[in-house]
Amino acid sequence: MWQKAAGTAAMGIALMLGSHAVFAQDSASASSSVRQGGGSVGDVTPAQRQELLKAGHYGVTKTDEQRAFGSVPLPIPGDSFSRGASEQAAPAQQKGLFPNSWHDFVNQDGFFGDPWGARSWLADHGVTVGGRYFQDSAGNPFGGKSRAARYADEEALSLDFDLKKLTGVAFNAGVLHFLTLARQGAGLGNTLPVIDSPMEIYGAGETMRLGRLSWEMHWNNYVQTEVGEINTENDFEQSSTYWGANLYCQFQNNGICGMPQSIAMNSGYGFYPTAHPGAWIKLYPAGNDHYLVQFGAYSVDPTISGVRNGWKMNLHGATGTFLPFQLGWHQGGGDDYSGPLQTNIKIGGYWDTSEVKNVYGQMGTYNIPASAAQDAPVSKVRGRFGGWFQFDRMLQRDGADPHRGTAFFASFTWGDPRTAIAPYFVTAGITRKGTFASRPDDTISFGMKALWANPKVTHWIEHLQHTGRGAGLYAPHSEEAIELNYGYRPTRWLLLRPGLQYLWSPGAVKRYKDAMLIDLESSISF
Question: What range does the record give for the signal peptide (predicted)?
Fold first, then answer.
């Protein structure tokens, strides 16, 4: 009960503050909405326009580096698309508790807007507040182990403190990030069963937890750092940002959103919404967003995702350190609504100092009973490693309406063959923003993921079957899934995303029939 109460209290604070989904990604990544007191971007000169396009919600300034390679503190769907090179005027300053007009209500960035201009005033003085409700629902009318339907939700509250504005100092002092969230509900993955959950919002302990508590510093055009309670998913093998939103998370399947899932299965990679003690440094050798060299260090602690450890902020129970690096190349205009089309390439790798069982000691992931490992060569391994390659590109932008366009992504992730549950993992997808001329912010997305089981496990189970000891055992091979969905945005603060998923070989074995899922995501930004 206290967990539900805590989640409700956090949500209440967000409502009282009139919060909307600015979140830390709006203060550290990609949004480009402009606040002109009702005026259009087209009313200013081209030079002024480019400066204004770097401004986010309520005066938070963005940089080209943050847009291309910046952290994305909430790597899940529901965020509004940036206004960008907008002919759509941002609402005029709100004069009271309620929006000035129905037009302003529909076009404001959050359900509660900016009562009496309080949000704008807080942002001008260094405090940015965000809040959101988000839910996943899914059911399988056929396939899998059994028929079922599940619902899970999340409520979140974020606070960002611009220390220069807040303290009045004459120099850049960085930004303090705080994020807390509460999750409830149940997932469909265990009932199917599948290796990657088809509901990305479910997991990491259904409880209230700390999602981020850190100090981020943009020292100059060449160096950026962050230190504190953070998670690797924000910064390494992360999605690129298109139209101000997370590209991977235009999908509900957790194998795609918000990162290629196998890296978390194969290593100590810290995934959202958990927060781990850690730090990273990003180097921009050319002083712009074209090239990136990045290093990080994060505590590996398998217990942080537990229900009782939502606010754990120490190294007790840590098994080692996750040490990733990443190289990035980017080209593109100042936003996705004008200039050259965006392209990104990321290549990275990691070393994990933890000592873990080799893959024979982890066969339970494939629902293989422990008895199958009795004679297997189980041993301990220290120093897992792996790597990844990511590519994404904006394929086209409509000439008649720059708000409409198409983006593509693909990734390949590889894990240590000694320990990796899924040493080979592939994702790909395409999103069309602007399904009709009258719906420039709606999307239609099609994506896929595929994982291949570690052949050591496959060969071991086949060996048991050939020797007559494998009765009832199924050798794992691969698990694939595709997803097709439609993202309907009747307002800037509301998302409804119905979709279909089809899963081949649930659990990576040929035990159950392929499954079809009907799902729905919805989000309200406050």
Answer: 1-24
